Structures are given as structure tokens and as C-alpha cells.
């Protein structure tokens, strides 16, 4: 298998083709015509494309590759960044980046990207817009609050702010309702399973489904926890360095926040989560550390019941949990 490294930009993308010695690069326009021309140079049996997850600019290329059954891998930009440091790269251009991505594919053999269901793609789009609208709402609400302390307030400005805030709130409510409706229609069984876990509500359940593409993108709960960014980091070397670091924070920050908030409820109503929290607190662990452990517990519970297509039973202990502990903490 030959790995083609691709560096994406808004209007063009650079592809690095492996040769007997080094790589040869070609630049294509980032549109349907350019992608078709690039695909015509590939072989389904011999090539696998590797590109960074750089937002919407690479989506057209990724989906057209998948439509033609050409293997493609979507890689976290941090992985390429650290790989470039390991290779001691001192030059950064589109051509150099494409070669580095191709070399990364050759050395690391990243997994092939799986196109999520249409419903998941639709919910992802809505979630992205929803995130930006909430940021705007917070900004405008803070601005309006700052106006209230002024000795004189321009009524027209205040009126414009109030109308804009009301409009954004209406749009947020509509998008949230759309996401819940799509989730209930397309993933009703998983929604029922997830919301049966004490501590997981409809908002967190839909976010888990969106991030995991209906629990099809991950093979085990450890992978999901790493993706979300709630696994602690460690540094150990010889006898002088032994540091227990913070969580890695590499993944979905919104989902990570929802899980942390859900842990507050879980330690009250979810027996397994409450026992985990109390056990860690008894050992002298800080509350935040114990709550992160509870968030990981919720991820394992959610993963298990969705894969088993069952309903959560509070206090149930599986045979695996009796004999081993597969927590990433």
C-alpha cells in the first residue's frame, strides 16, 4: 500500500506521491474538478490517502474519496505536529507538510476513515452552528450587562441588543430541538439505553451519539475516553521524574464539559459512580480528580449498554469488572 500525504488549504491542496527516492508533489484546486483530477491518479487497490482534520476545507475531498472506495485516513493535526518535531523538520511549506503526512502514513498506518450515517452528519452540522451561536449569545449578554452600569444608556443600542439576543435564543432553541428530534428518530434505541444511565440526560446522550457516530467509531471505552480528552497523563523516567499530570484535553471540549457536569448528578443517583467517587475521596483524592473518574465511569457504562443494546441496571456488576479493571485512570 502506498500512502499519499495531502495538505489542505481553502482553495488548493497538495498531494505527495511516494517515489523510489523521496516524494513527488502535485497541487490541485480544492473543488469538484480538482478532486476528480486527483482521484483519477489513484488506484483503489494500491493507494491510501492521509490528511489532517482541518475543518470543512477537507470534507469534499474526504467524501469523494470514500465514494470511490479509496481508503482515506483523517489524522489529528497534533499527531502530525509532533511527528514533524520527531523528524526535526525545520521548514514548513505546503509541499513539506504533504511529504511529512505521507511519511507519517507510511510509518504509523493510521486507520481508514468510516463515513458516518447521514443523520450523524446532519447533527454534527447543527452542533457546530449551535456552538457558535452560544458563544455569540454569551458575548452579547455580557455586553448588555456592561451597559447597565453606564450613567446614560442609548436606548436604540439596547433595543438592538435585546432583539439580537432574543433572535439568537430562538435559533438555539430550534437547533437543539432539531438535534433531539433527529436523535430520537434515527437512534431511538441508543437514546433509550443511554438515558437509562443515571446521570446521562438527552443532551449528553445526543452528544455521545454524534461524537461516536452511533458508537461505530470506537472499539472500546478507552479509545472513546482518549478521544474525549478525559484520560490523565503521566510522566515517569527513572527515579527523578514521576508526575501525575492533568487530563489530556485532546478531544471534544463540549462533550468533556457535559460529562463533567453529568458527574455531579451521577455521584448522587448512580450507585457505581457514587462508590467510585467515595472510594477516591477516601484515598484523599481532590474532588475534581474523583469527578473525572466518575466521568470515565459514565463513558464505560454508556459504551457497554449501547454495544449490548440493553438498558442500564443500577448496581449491576459484569463478570469482566469483577475480574479486572479496564479503566483508563
UniProtKB/TrEMBL annotation:
Which InterPro entries does the record associate with it?
Transp_IS110-like_N, Transpos_IS110, Transposase_20
Give the Transposase IS110-like N-terminal domain ranges. 4-142
- Which intervals hold domain Transposase IS116/IS110/IS902 C-terminal? 193-278
Q: Which domain of life is it from?
A: Bacteria
PANTHER family cross-referenced by the UniProt entry: PUTATIVE TRANSPOSASE FOR IS117-RELATED, TRANSPOSASE FOR INSERTION SEQUENCE ELEMENT IS1111A
What protein does this entry describe?
Transposase
Amino acid at each position: 500500500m502506498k500512502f499519499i500525504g495531502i495538505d489542505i488549504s481553502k482553495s488548493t491542496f497538495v498531494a505527495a506521491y511516494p517515489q523510489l527516492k523521496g516524494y513527488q508533489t502535485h497541487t490541485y484546486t480544492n473543488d469538484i474538478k480538482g478532486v476528480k483530477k486527483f482521484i483519477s491518479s489513484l488506484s483503489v487497490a494500491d493507494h491510501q490517502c492521509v490528511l489532517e482534520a482541518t475543518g470543512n476545507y477537507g470534507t469534499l475531498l474526504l467524501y469523494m474519496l470514500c465514494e470511490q472506495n479509496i481508503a482515506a485516513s483523517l489524522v489529528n493535526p497534533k499527531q502530525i505536529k509532533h511527528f514533524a518535531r520527531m523528524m526535526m523538520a525545520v521548514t514548513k511549506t505546503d509541499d513539506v507538510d504533504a511529504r511529512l503526512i505521507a511519511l507519517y502514513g507510511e510509518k504509523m498506518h493510521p486507520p481508514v476513515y468510516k463515513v458516518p450515517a447521514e443523520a450523524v452528519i446532519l447533527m454534527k452540522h447543527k452542533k457546530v452552528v449551535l456552538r457558535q451561536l452560544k458563544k455569540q449569545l454569551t458575548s452579547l449578554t455580557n455586553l448588555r450587562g456592561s451597559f447597565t452600569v453606564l450613567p446614560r444608556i442609548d436606548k436604540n443600542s439596547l433595543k438592538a441588543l435585546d432583539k439580537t439576543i432574543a433572535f439568537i435564543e430562538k435559533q438555539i432553541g430550534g437547533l437543539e430541538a432539531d438535534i433531539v428530534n433527529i436523535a430520537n428518530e434515527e437512534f431511538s434505541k441508543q437514546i433509550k439505553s443511554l438515558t437509562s444511565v443515571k446521570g446521562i440526560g438527552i443532551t449528553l446522550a445526543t452528544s455521545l451519539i454524534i461524537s461516536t457516530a452511533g458508537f461505530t467509531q470506537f472499539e472500546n471505552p478507552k479509545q472513546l475516553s482518549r478521544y474525549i480528552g478525559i484520560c490523565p497523563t503521566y510522566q515517569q523516567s527513572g527515579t527523578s521524574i514521576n508526575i501525575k499530570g492533568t487530563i489530556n484535553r485532546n478531544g471534544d471540549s463540549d462533550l468533556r464539559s457535559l460529562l463533567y457536569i453529568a458527574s455531579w448528578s451521577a455521584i448522587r443517583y448512580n450507585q457505581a459512580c457514587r462508590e467510585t467517587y467515595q472510594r477516591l475521596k477516601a484515598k484523599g483524592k481532590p474532588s475534581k480528580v474523583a469527578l473525572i473518574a466518575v466521568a470515565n465511569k459514565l463513558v464505560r457504562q454508556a459504551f457497554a449498554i449501547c454495544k449490548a443494546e440493553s438498558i442500564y441496571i443500577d448496581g449491576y456488576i459484569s463478570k469482566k469488572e469483577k475480574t479486572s479493571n479496564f479503566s483508563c485512570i
